[in-house]
Amino acid sequence: MENKQNILGNIENFLSINNEFGRLLTYGDIFIILTSSLVLSLIIFYTYKLTYRGILYTENFNRSLVLVSVVTSIVILTISSNIVLSLGMVGALSIVRFRTAIKDPMDIVFMFWAIAVGISNGAGFFKISIAGTIFIAAIFVVFANIKGSSNPYLVVIKFHKNFDIYSSLNSFGNYRIKSKIISGEEVEMTIETRMNDKVAEEINNISSMKEVYHCTAISYNGDYIS
Question: Whole-prediction pTM value?
Answer without folding.
Answer: 0.62
